[in-house]
Predict the structure.
Amino acid sequence: MTGGAQPKVSTGSTQRVTLAKGLNMGLRRAMEDDPKVLLMGEDVGKLGGVFRITDGLQKDFGEDRVIDSPLAESGIVGTAVGLALRGYRPVVEIQFDGFVYPAYDQIVCQVAKMQFRSQGKLKMPMVIRIPFGGGIGAVEHHSESPEAQFAHTPGLKVVACSNPVDGYWMIQQAIACDDPVIFLEPKRQYHADKADLDESATPEPLFSSRVVRAGTDATVLAYGPTVKSAMAAAEAAATEGKSLEVIDLRTLSPLDMAPVYESVRRTGRAVVAHEAHVNLGMGAEIASRITEECFYSLEAPVLRVGAFDTPYPPSRIEEDYLPDLDRILDAADRSLEF
C-alpha cells in the first residue's frame, strides 16, 4: 500500500473527513450501538471538548451519557473505574497529555491491575483518550508524549491512530475491547488533513501494524504524529532514488512486530521515529526486538529519531525540538551509508 491507511474492503459511498470528525463519528456510532457507553471529561459536553472531538454528542445523547466533569483527572478516572466495574464502558478524555499525571496512580494501580487482581473475574472495559504530541504552539503539559510509560505497564493496551479512517474505526474497536485501552490521538493532525471514510468497509484489527508505503532500501517505523513525517521523508527520498518502506505501528502494547520483521528482513535497515524522547522511548524496545529477531538480516544498526532529552521547549522553538522530515531522512541516509 503506497497511500494513507484505508480499510481493506470498500463497498459503499465515502465522505471526506478530518481526524477530529472521524473520531467524533466513531464515538457517536459506539454510543448508538451500546447504551452502556459513556463519555466523561473536562468540557466534553456543552463545549464539545477543547478540540471539538465530542461536539454535539451531549446534545444528542444527554447529560447522563456525556458528562462534564470537574477539573480532577484522578477523580475522573477513579469514577470511570467504578462505572466499568458496574458494567458500563466509560470513555474518559484527558484534555491534554500532560494532564494525565494526576490520574497516573489510578491508571497504573487500579485500571491496569483490576482484571489480574481478580483472576479475570472483573473486567475493566475503559478507554482513556489522550491527545498527545506537539506541533500546536503550546507549552509544556500540553505537548507531551507519555506513551512509553503506559506501554511499560502490564494490563494496559496502548494504541495510536494517525489518520481519519483509523480514528473512526480504532475508537470503536477500543471501546468494544474488554481490556483498558490508552487511546493516543495526535493533536496536530486533528484538523490537518482529510481522508475518504467508508463506514461500510471492513476495518483492520485493532492491535495490528500496517505497511502504508512499500519500499526496498530501508524500513521507517512510526506511529501517531510521525507517520505523516515518515511519509514525507519517503517521498523526499524517492526523488533521490531511494526507496523507503513506511510502517504505521498503530499499536504500542501489544506491539505487532510480524510486519516489521518481514519488512526489515527484506530491506536490511530500520529507522524508528517518534516525538517522545529517544532515551528509553518506544524506539528502544522496537530496536531491541528487531536486533534479536533480524540480526543476520541487518546491514546497519537500527537507528532512532525522536525529541531531545529536555523538557518540552517554548513554542517558538518546538519545530527545532520535534523530529521532522529532515531528521528522519538524515537517519535513513546514515543507515544506507553502512
User: Anything to note?
Assistant: The longest strand covers residues 270-277. Residues 1-9 have pLDDT under 50 and may be disordered. The chain has twelve helices and 14 strands. Residues 158 and 252 are 5 Å apart (CA to CA).
